[in-house]
Amino acid sequence: MTESILETNKPLQVVVFAGDPLAVPTINLLLQQQVLAGVVFAQLQDAFSSQLSAWLQQSGCPCICFNPAAPEQLEKQLEVWQADAAAAFNFPYELSAVCEHSPAFGLYYFHATPQNQYKGPRPLYWQIRDSQLQTQLILQKAGVEEGMPDIAVSHNQIIHPLDTLQCLEGKVAQQAALMFAQLLTQLSESNGQIKLQLLPFQAAAVKAAPHPRESDLHVDWLTMGSEQIAALTRAGNQQFGGSVITLGQTQLSLLQATVIEHPTYGVAPGTICFIGEPQGVIAATCDGAVRLDILANADGIFNGISFTERFAINAGMGFVSGPAI
């Protein structure tokens, strides 16, 4: 039988399953409070896992790379660490075995989507693309019977209309650390017997939220309205280079776009209908117009007018709808 935390007066020890950068502020918090039992990172050849592994080893933090072909290694390590609770941030592997051998106070998943409406590793990217104005951050306890209360902590997070993915993920990551600190306080004070809640049901279609493919980043001038193009560009800034627009056979990165009211003179969507001060560079869309604020190519990053002057782009030229063929 697990000895009561209240009886021993010792701080809770926590394991973090880190699948994406949202986990970093929580890891930092636990390190500062000296309650981090260890970190489990994914066996993936991606930049985050490599950087996280190097940082953890440099800081002397106990860590292990999870091998899905040998889950017993993780089970043995969890026994060594003797953690009281665990948190999982978008961990790409099934953790059912961990639930069976979970720490005494449970495993908690962090979600950044209203009731899992966006399923996949990039929910915030797709929420920005859909012009959502608010998301819901949740710490959900694993292993709870379906239909029963399982939410430990929740927080409504505003999505600012000018948030980029980088900006929003930074705010969400910091809030996640505060939420987990709140959870640890509740667990300590109640010896793990916290009251879970069941969020009010909200009928909404579940949307896939995968890592965006290269083809997902292209502006389709024939079908995307001004708001969609601006949102697509914000969602991709800066991790995916904004959005992609194609002029002739040349692909350009659009890093910032703004919906603007401006006459388009009946030109086809994707046509540059105005270049000049103070309005900037304006292109027609299928439902209005959008200003091309910041563009980039292999030669550098330019504001719209500087780009058109440097590369001799004139009004009347048109962007290709979708990837160049």
Structural features, described:
The chain has helices at residues 5-8, 24-32, 47-59, 71-81, 96-100, 123-129, 165-190, 226-236, 304-310, and strands at 14-18, 36-42, 63-66, 85-89, 107-112, 118-119, 134-141, 151-158, 207-208, 243-247, 250-260, 272-276, 280-285, 288-297, 300-303. It has 325 residues and is α/β, with parallel strands linked by helices. The chain has two domains: 5-190, Rossmann fold (3-Layer(aba) Sandwich), CATH 3.40.50.170; 214-310, Methionyl-tRNA Fmet Formyltransferase, Chain A, domain 2. Helix 6 (123-129) runs antiparallel to helix 8. It starts with a helix and ends in a 15-residue tail after the last helix.
Uncertain segments: none
Number of strands: 15
Structural class by sheet pairing and helices: alpha/beta
* Strand residue content: 25-35%
Order of the strands making up the biggest sheet: 3-2-1-4-5-7-8
Q: What's the number of structural domains? A: 2
Q: What's the helix-strand series? A: HEHEHEHEHEEHEEHEHEEEEEEH
Using the alpha-carbon principal axes, give the shape. Answer: elongated
Helix content: 25-40%
How far the N terminus sits from the C terminus, by CA atoms, comes to: 66 Å
Which CATH class of the largest domain? Alpha Beta
Q: Any guess at the CATH architecture of the largest domain?
A: 3-Layer(aba) Sandwich
Helix count from the secondary structure assignment: 9
CATH topology of the largest domain: Rossmann fold
What average pLDDT do the residues reach?
91
Task: Calculate Rg over CA atoms.
Answer: 24 Å
CATH superfamily of the largest domain: Formyl transferase, N-terminal domain
